[in-house]
Design a protein that fits this description.
It is a multi-pass membrane protein. Its main location: membrane. It is found in: Cell membrane. This is Hydrogenase. This protein has seven helices and no strands. 75% of the residues lie in helices and 0% in strands. It has one domain. By secondary structure, it is an all-alpha fold.
Length: 223
C-alpha cells in the first residue's frame, strides 16, 4: 500500500488560508468588543482576497485579479468604514448579551463546523482549482456565521455575522466555481453591497428609536 502523496505548495497554501478564515470566524464569535469584530471581519476579508489572487496567479485566471481587487476595496475598506462610521454615533462598544455563554457558543460552533466539514468530506466533491479540504472549511465558516447571528443580541454582531457568511460563500465559490464569468462573481459583491445598505439603515433607525443597538427589545414584536 503506497502512502498518499504529500500536498503540493499550492494545496498547502490554500488549506492554510482556508483554516485562517475559519479561525478568524471563531475569533469573531469570542470577541465582545464590537469594533474588534469589525476589524476581524476586515482581516478575514483580506485573507479571502489574498486567496483569490493566489488562485489567479497559480491557475492563470486573470479575472480573479479583478475580483480580488474589488473584494479588497469593498470588504476590507468600504464595509468596515461604513459600519465603524455608523457606530460612531452610538456609545455602545460591547456586543449585546448572547443567548449562550461564550464557552457554550464556541462548543456549538465546533460541533456545527465539524458536522459541515465531515459532511462535505463524505461527498467527495471534486475541484479543479482548490483542494476539497478548503471547501469543507468554507462550509464550517458559513455555519459558524449562522451561530454568530443567532446567539448575539445586537445589530452590529448580526451584521458582521451575515457579512462573514458571505466570506464563507466566497471561499466555497473559489473551490467549486473559480472559473465562473467575472460578472457572476461581481454579482455576489453587489449582493453584499445591498446587504450593507440594508443593515446600515437598520442600525440607524433602530438606534434612533431605542437609543441602543441591542435587538432584545424586538422580542416585543412577537405575536
Amino acid at each position: 500500500m503506497h502512502p498518499a502523496p504529500a500536498p503540493g505548495v499550492f494545496a498547502g497554501t490554500a488549506n492554510v488560508i482556508a483554516v485562517l478564515v475559519l479561525l478568524l470566524e471563531f475569533w469573531m464569535l469570542r470577541q465582545a468588543l464590537l469594533r474588534d469584530q469589525v476589524r476581524l471581519y476586515a482581516a478575514q476579508s483580506l485573507v479571502v482576497s489574498v486567496l483569490a489572487a493566489v488562485v489567479a496567479a497559480t491557475h492563470h485566471l486573470p479575472e480573479l485579479y479583478v475580483l480580488a481587487v474589488l473584494s479588497f476595496a469593498l470588504k476590507v475598506v468600504v464595509v468596515p468604514l461604513v459600519v465603524l462610521r455608523l457606530m460612531h454615533d452610538t456609545s455602545e462598544e460591547i456586543a449585546g448579551s448572547a443567548t449562550l455563554g461564550t464557552a457554550s457558543a464556541v462548543l456549538v460552533s465546533i460541533v456545527v463546523a465539524g458536522f459541515g466539514f465531515f459532511t462535505i468530506g463524505v461527498l467527495h466533491l471534486p475541484s479543479a482549482v482548490l483542494p476539497t479540504t478548503a471547501l469543507s472549511v468554507s462550509i464550517g465558516v458559513v455555519l459558524i456565521a449562522f451561530v454568530l447571528m443567532a446567539v448575539r443580541r445586537d445589530v452590529v454582531s448580526q451584521a458582521i455575522g451575515f457579512f462573514s457568511l458571505e466570506n464563507g460563500v466566497s471561499l466555497a465559490s473559489l473551490v467549486v466555481a473559480a472559473e465562473l464569468p467575472l460578472i457572476l462573481e461581481v454579482a455576489f459583491l453587489f449582493d453584499l453591497l445591498v446587504a450593507v445598505v440594508v443593515f446600515g439603515v437598520l442600525m440607524r433607525v433602530h438606534h434612533v428609536r431605542t437609543a441602543s443597538l441591542s435587538t432584545a427589545a424586538l422580542n416585543r414584536l412577537r405575536g
